């Protein structure tokens, strides 16, 4: 039996265990500096877009091979593959809405039944026969408000009523997305996000999220 819906996940520290910007920053020797800014942004202490631009600037000059290195270091959160398969089997579309980077997300999720990925694109340039990062983000940044807009536009394009949407995230950048969904799930979340959630899950298993969110949707 199927019942069409839309299941949306944040990526970093939600669908995967790591923060990709920190993995990329490893190659610069400035991971701790970048991680401190990420933590403040996820607590809601900094404007996300501004903080992302500052963190991405650290990556200037790195070869694009760092994307593959970062993808190889990523760990999917427990239940990630199972929840995507379970949602697809139930007729649900699955989307990843991330303040992270498309180039890494697409490698990490290759072969999974992910219907949509909306994330940031890093600008590159040719330098000495090698493609390197410029330290800039291309186009509009997927920020807190952007995630909510993407959830709504994906649902609309697929003919899914907002009453059939579930959003899952962990930080302040996910507040609008959780509020836009019929059921918002705070997953092992920062204090800033918890008051905005319909369901709070502190067990790091995305199948638990799916089960609890579906129950909440039926209430």
Strand content: 15-25%
Poorly predicted parts:
none
Strand order of the largest sheet: 4-3-2-1-5-6-7
Largest sheet: 7 strands, mixed
Helix content: 40-55%
Given helix and strand content, the structural type is alpha/beta
**Shape estimate:** globular
How many domains, as an integer?
1
What's the order of the H and E elements? Answer: EHHHHHHEHEEHEHEEH
Average pLDDT across residues? 96
Q: Please report the distance between the alpha carbons of the first and last residues.
A: 19 Å
Given this structure, which CATH class is correct?
Alpha Beta
- Contiguous helical run count: 10
CATH architecture: 3-Layer(aba) Sandwich
- The total strand number stands at 7
CATH superfamily: HAD superfamily/HAD-like
* Backbone CA Rg: 17 Å
- CATH fold naming: Rossmann fold
Task: Write structural notes for this entry.
This protein has 10 helices and 7 strands. It has helices at 11-15, 20-25, 31-42, 48-57, 65-73, 80-89, 102-108, 144-157, 175-180, 206-218; strands at residues 5-9, 92-101, 116-127, 130-138, 165-169, 183-187, 199-201. β2, α7 and β3 form a beta-alpha-beta unit. The longest helix has 14 residues, at 144-157. The mean pLDDT is 96.
Helix-strand blueprint:
Blueprint: E1 5-9, H1 11-15, H2 20-25, H3 31-42, H4 48-57, H5 65-73, H6 80-89, E2 92-101, H7 102-108, E3 116-127, E4 130-138, H8 144-157, E5 165-169, H9 175-180, E6 183-187, E7 199-201, H10 206-218
Parallel strand pairs: 1-2, 1-5, 2-3, 5-6, 6-7
Antiparallel strand pairs: 3-4
């Amino acid at each position: 039996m199927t019942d069409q819906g839309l299941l949306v996940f944040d990526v970093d520290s939600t669908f995967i265990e790591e923060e990709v910007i920190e993995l990329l920053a490893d190659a610069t020797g400035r991971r701790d500096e970048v991680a401190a800014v990420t933590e403040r942004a996820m607590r809601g202490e900094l404007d996300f877009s501004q903080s992302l631009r500052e963190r991405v600037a650290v990556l200037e000059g790195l070869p694009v091979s760092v994307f593959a290195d970062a993808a190889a270091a990523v760990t999917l959160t427990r239940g990630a593959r199972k929840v995507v398969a379970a949602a697809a089997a139930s007729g649900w579309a699955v989307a990843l809405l991330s303040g992270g980077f498309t180039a890494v997300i697409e490698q990490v999720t290759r072969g999974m039944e992910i219907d949509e990925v909306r994330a940031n694109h890093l600008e590159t340039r040719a330098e000495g026969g090698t493609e390197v990062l410029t330290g800039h983000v291309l186009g509009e940044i997927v920020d807190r408000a952007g995630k909510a807009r993407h959830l709504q536009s994906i649902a609309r394009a697929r003919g899914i009523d907002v009453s059939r949407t579930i959003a899952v995230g962990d930080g302040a950048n996910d507040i609008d997305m959780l509020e836009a969904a019929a059921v918002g799930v705070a997953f092992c979340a920062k204090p800033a996000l918890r008051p905005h959630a319909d369901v709070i899950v502190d067990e790091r298993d995305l199948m638990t999220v799916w089960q609890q969110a579906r129950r909440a949707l039926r209430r």
